Amino acid sequence: MNLEISEQRIKAMTTAGLNLIGQALSIYDSQLRLVVSNLRFQEMFGLPDELVEPGALFHDTIHFLASRGEYGPDGDVAEMVETRVAQALAFEPHYMERTRPNGQVISVEGAPLPNGGWVAVYTDITRTKRVEDLLRARSEELSGQLLGHAEELSATNRKLAATITALEEAKRQLTEIEARTRMTTEMMPAHIAHLDTDGRYDYSNRRLSSVMPGRPSDILGLHISKALGQSAYDRVKPHLEQAYGGQPSVFEFTEDQDSRRIRVSFTPDEAGGVYVMSVDITEETQARVALQQTRRRAMAAQMTSGLAHDFSNLLTIILGMQARLEKMDLPKEADQLIAATQQTARRGGQLLNRIADMTGNRTPQPQATDMRGLLEDLRILATPSLPRGMGLSVVNTLPNKPLMLDPGMVQDALLNLVLNARDACGTSGQITISVHAIGTIWIEITVSDTGSGFTPEALEQALNPFFTTKGSDGSGLGLPMVYDTVKLAGGDLNLRNTPSGASVVIRLPFRPAPPSQAGLVLLVEDNDELRSQFREILIGLGCPVIEASSVEEALTLTSDVEDITLVLSDIRLEGEGTGIDIVDHLSGALPCILMTSLPISDPLHHQALKRAPVLSKPFTPEQLSALIRTEAA
């Protein structure tokens, strides 16, 4: 709005300045629409108010003048208009003189503007022409009068030259104002534009494509429906109509191409058009969703903590009393009742633990994550829990680059969904995890199965805590916990049925990990061939490398070379000592990553895991890159 007020002030000052000029002046844009004119322009040609308002069409003005005989009493009006519109569209400099029906003689001088359109100056030269005629008719008889008129003509010419100079300065200032305004708006992270009364863009800062990718940048003259596309236009149309009716409107909508969240402001202007400002608020929305979920969890924790404490005490008393009853000499049928009561009480305790998990402190810790590695680990974890007749497949089309995610929370959520899918399929079926990117905004993860699908009731209530279709075997907290995890990350979750079963669709913010900022890496490996391979990987990741093949060499380099920022060492090395000894000697002075081909059951592997992150050979560049980013952070 400040920009709008500033533009109005500039327009008012410019108009006031132009009205001081003795000549008539008009400026039309590249679409032959009036940008500005002075009062003398209206007075000279007797134009009605609607033809001197900004946006008035050059075609309508010429038609008005031709209909009044401005260009001669004879001739076809439509042809006159067509000829002059064609000449105007050529945007060529021109100068002409003509006599108007009222006997007035005027000169017309036009000059094109840098971005299309032109400025035209109309000067009343009737007196000058009369002087010229007089000079020709009575040059000998009226030499004295000739001299006077010559001096008058000279003065007139001087005034005309001064006026032309003023007009050129006004033109220069207008050009500078337009350039400054455009530069200011183009630097803003928003699309700023103006629509005329017909819904066509007559101004744009050419940022539409950055706010809504896939749309054109050069939209001057385009109707808003063509620039946005029909689907997006249908969503903004009611708000646009409201603005054309004189009421401002601010609203948000989700566009179809890559599900960006867009905030749009429509502000009516006095001339009948509409100012437009559009901003991509996707990241703001994601952060807002995460904050809302954090607040909900805090409220839930406050409400349930006291109840959980009291309920836990009651369960403890019940279990204690049942233990005493179990020792008493009671009828045999009482044993079953006691066992059932104990089992139910223990299940209540487990339920309390699940509630604590849902309402406890679960702040996401995003880090550079190799999504391919995470999904492969998930497949390995989930497969042993599936029946023999059930398959698990993973389809991942994400770019092979680290993403900023909380790998633990994401893997826990997906494992929960896989186990739910397993229960829905029974003893056989197929579970599919598919992952792809939606533009550069979202990661979409779909877990689908070939089970019986969601019931209508489940589609409505499955995300509510304690709703379950598994009877006593379910707690009703699995899907709500997944929903909670996704919302905490700023994402969304949807349930749907498919022709072959059901699917759960998760959307998480797509945030590529920043480039590695690791400095000099000390590579410690005693196998020449492997050391060469690891060196190439590190160089490919942008890390300068120095090398060692033993503990002794490595410790010497760490004490002598000050620029080392990370140590990557094999566990087993030639000579005395291991990579673990390097970690112990450095005592946290430098980040260390260990690598090994030892099985995880090996005691040395177990010992290493307590000291530093361990990469199992073979590993991919992406796995090493993700770990380096984490350690460098």
TrEMBL record:
Residues 150-187 form a coiled coil. Residues 520-632 form the Response regulatory domain. The modification 4-aspartylphosphate is found at D570. Its EC number is 2.7.13.3. GO terms for molecular function: phosphorelay sensor kinase activity. The keyword Transferase applies. SMART domains: HATPase_c, REC. It is an enzyme of class 2 (transferase). Keywords: Coiled coil, Kinase, Phosphoprotein, Transferase. It catalyses: ATP + protein L-histidine = ADP + protein N-phospho-L-histidine. Gene3D superfamilies: 1.10.287.130, 3.40.50.2300, Histidine kinase-like ATPase, C-terminal domain (3.30.565.10), PAS domain (3.30.450.20). Residues 306-512 form the Histidine kinase domain. Pfam families: HATPase_c, PAS_4, PAS_7, Response_reg. This is histidine kinase. It comes from Ruegeria conchae.
